[in-house]
Amino acid sequence: MKVLVSDPISDKGIEILKKEVEVDVLTGLEPSELVKKIGEYEALIVRSETKVTKEVIEAGKSLKIIGRAGVGVDNIDVAAATGKGIIVVNAPEGNTISAAEHTIAMMMAMSRNIPQANASLKNKKWDRKKFMGVEVRDKTLGVVGLGRIGAEVAKRAQGMEMKILAYDPFITPGRAGELGVELTTVEDIVKRADYITVHTPLTKETTNLIGAKQFGMMKKGARIINCARGGIINEEALAKAVHDGTVASAAIDVFVKEPPFDSPLLENDNIIVTPHLGASTEEAQVNVAVSVAEQVINVHKGRPVKNAINMPYVKPEVMQVLEPYFPLAEKMGKMCTQLIGTNFERIDISYSGEIADKNVAPVTLAVLKGLLEPMLGAGVNYVNAPGIAKERKVKVTESKSKTTEGYPSQVSVKLSREGEEKMVCGTIIGKEPRIIRIDEYSIDVVPSGYMIVAKHKDNPNIIGPCCMILGKNNINIAGMQVGRISAGGDAIMVLGVDSDVPDRILNEIKSVDGIIDAKRVVL
Ligand code: NAD
Ligand code: MLT
Fold this sequence. Notes:
With 523 residues, this protein is an alpha/beta fold. The chain is built from 18 helices and 22 strands. The strands form 4 sheets. A 7-stranded parallel sheet has the order 8-7-6-9-10-11-12, sandwiched between helices. The longest helix has 19 residues.
């Protein structure tokens, strides 16, 4: 794998990468240079400076993964990456504490005019009156967005005896209770809070979340902090509110356009600013670089990643349980498509037994990948498989049940199209994948290599002639399983062979008296 690191990240991350893959660190590339170069690489690692646009993604013909050494992925066109099957990962936990501490530092620096006083004294002025500050104790802090950073800010502010109001539509009253904060609305926060800090991602809903209307309702003399993303607080409206005294002061780390040299926020001494430093600590930079480097290596080695933005999140301990199911699920999917053909209309995936308790979403992705691969080859992966199924108008259902047929856990995949169905069931024995049923026939087959799956009459003198055909064509039989429901009825034979079976030989097998149908399966 060749990895391009296009923004500065900690050497610790680079060291991890260099042990396993080829790495180029090329920071400060112009967008057009990045478009020209990206085609050579299978992985791209960025912070917030590089804009990973649709154009970059389209030029990245070999890209498998884009890693964001940090939280926000607003500089990456995730939809375009998903469409191309590129995994986007971030490092959401590594800089939480640094960003929360920076927020508190900005709140205190703003309350005590520290940057202004520092600049004044260095200008040889001893002005103690001008820089009179305020205490934060007993003040109300409104936290908008009570996720990782918002919660850590709330905890720290409580340590300074502040009262916390919070707004976050995705936080339960239980979680708010645990944090000792009062959950309320943005409107209530702007009316009651002495300090307001935002910690949401930048989305359509959060853009201008605090704008002219909110400043119009704000408690006079409120103080504003933004260490999340530029644009959550409208910059012009904030500059105006500070100018007219509605807002006493503001502390801003992030800007709509970075660097923000034309921003009105740089023009007022009551607004203190830092150049996007929330995550700029030694600790955070090591954490995020290591996390992203490890995830890139995982993709290189075909292992699951922990923080994929465009794939379902699964806790590491659950991932360990699910790991053996990925190859099983892919192989079941591939087998189904080869048994029924590619024009299926519906996929029903069911999980029973112990696995049904888990978040099986990634296993479902593995089934979909396996099902679509015989049609689309390497172009399909865990990221784009659901989108491809949807585009093809294939209905996908997932169901779970506690009861199994004798195995602790079982996965079933049923493909259907008008008037026809094919079902394959599998399980894990030890750590090994097994196919335990095809349609109504119980079998026990290790899904690998070349196979012939033949439905036939359960009569004498059918299996023998099939084996003879293979033998005379020099195709070695590695294993054989037969499943039937009742003696003399229909049965299924699964022959594992050491090499591919050409059409000519398959047709010969199909013509054996008593063979109903025979399919070649390659796993
Ligand atoms: P997070 O995902 O843990 O938390 C974000 C919270 O915002 C979630 O709880 C979510 O429910 C909430 N939210 C989403 N939409 C909302 C809305 N419309 N109104 C209110 N709440 C809403 O993320 P995090 O790790 O806490 O990061 C928060 C922000 O800080 C992100 O924008 C991230 O990019 C930014 N960040 C900045 C720096 C920096 O250097 N300044 C460093 C790290 C993170
Ligand atoms: C983030 O979202 O993680 C921060 O903005 C920090 C960074 O850009 O590295």
